[in-house]
């Protein structure tokens, strides 16, 4: 044994994993799946019968939860697929800056200033109009795999 002290610098992310494995055959419609490194919501699942040489296959049709693009994947039903950890958090809207970023009030009383306004036109106009009218607005932020986006809006009345 040596008397030297060793110090290790960890560069790893201490946070929880962005995905977890789940057997393809158990993923259902309205569930989540990772296709081409994108977090997606499953809109259609079809399973083929086992062929002469092997596995039944699951055909997933899914919509990217952040940009709305349609993605498809075919996976043997006995294999594992990555499923993203998707969370939704509500924040109160404080301010909208000229460059399209929003200032949100967190549960702890701090502010979150790193989110842009949503790209969805109807939600964007609802947020801008409600804010211009001086209403108290609560936005729902969906986050998965290191990405975050405003996905819903609640009006909690005038200020």
From TrEMBL:
One of the GO BP terms on file: positive regulation of translational termination
A GO molecular function held by the record: RNA binding
PTM annotation: eIF-5A seems to be the only eukaryotic protein to have a hypusine residue which is a post-translational modification of a lysine by the addition of a butylamino group.
Keyword Kinase assigned: no
Keyword annotations from UniProtKB, A to Z: Hypusine, Initiation factor, Protein biosynthesis
Domain Translation initiation factor 5A C-terminal: 85-154
A Pfam family this chain is assigned to: IF5A-like_N
Recorded superkingdom: Eukaryota
Spans annotated as Disordered: 1-21
Basic and acidic residues biased stretches: 1-12
InterPro entries per UniProt: IF5A-like (IPR001884), IF5A-like_N (IPR048670), IF5A_C (IPR020189), NA-bd_OB-fold (IPR012340), Rib_uL2_dom2 (IPR014722), Trans_elong_IF5A_hypusine_site (IPR019769), Translation_prot_SH3-like_sf (IPR008991)
Keyword hit for Transmembrane helix: no
Homology family: Belongs to the eIF-5A family.
Summary of the function given for this chain in its UniProt record: Translation factor that promotes translation elongation and termination, particularly upon ribosome stalling at specific amino acid sequence contexts. Binds between the exit (E) and peptidyl (P) site of the ribosome and promotes rescue of stalled ribosome: specifically required for efficient translation of polyproline-containing peptides as well as other motifs that stall the ribosome. Acts as a ribosome quality control (RQC) cofactor by joining the RQC complex to facilitate peptidyl transfer during CAT tailing step.
Record protein name field: Eukaryotic translation initiation factor 5A
């Amino acid at each position: 044994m040596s008397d030297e002290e060793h110090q290790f610098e960890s560069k790893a992310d201490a946070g929880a994993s962005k995905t977890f494995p789940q057997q393809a055959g158990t993923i259902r419609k309205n569930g989540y799946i990772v296709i081409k490194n994108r977090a997606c919501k499953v809109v259609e699942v079809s399973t083929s019968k086992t062929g002469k040489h092997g596995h039944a296959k699951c055909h997933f049709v899914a919509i990217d939860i952040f940009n709305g693009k349609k993605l498809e994947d075919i996976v043997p039903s006995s294999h594992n697929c990555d499923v993203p950890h998707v969370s939704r958090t509500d924040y109160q809207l404080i301010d909208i800056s000229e460059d399209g970023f929003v200032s949100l009030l967190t549960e702890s009383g701090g502010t979150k200033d790193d989110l842009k306004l949503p790209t969805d036109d109807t939600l964007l106009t609802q947020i801008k109009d409600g804010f211009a009218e001086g209403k108290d607005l609560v936005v729902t932020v969906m986050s998965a795999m290191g990405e975050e986006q405003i996905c819903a809006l609640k009006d909690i009345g005038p200020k």
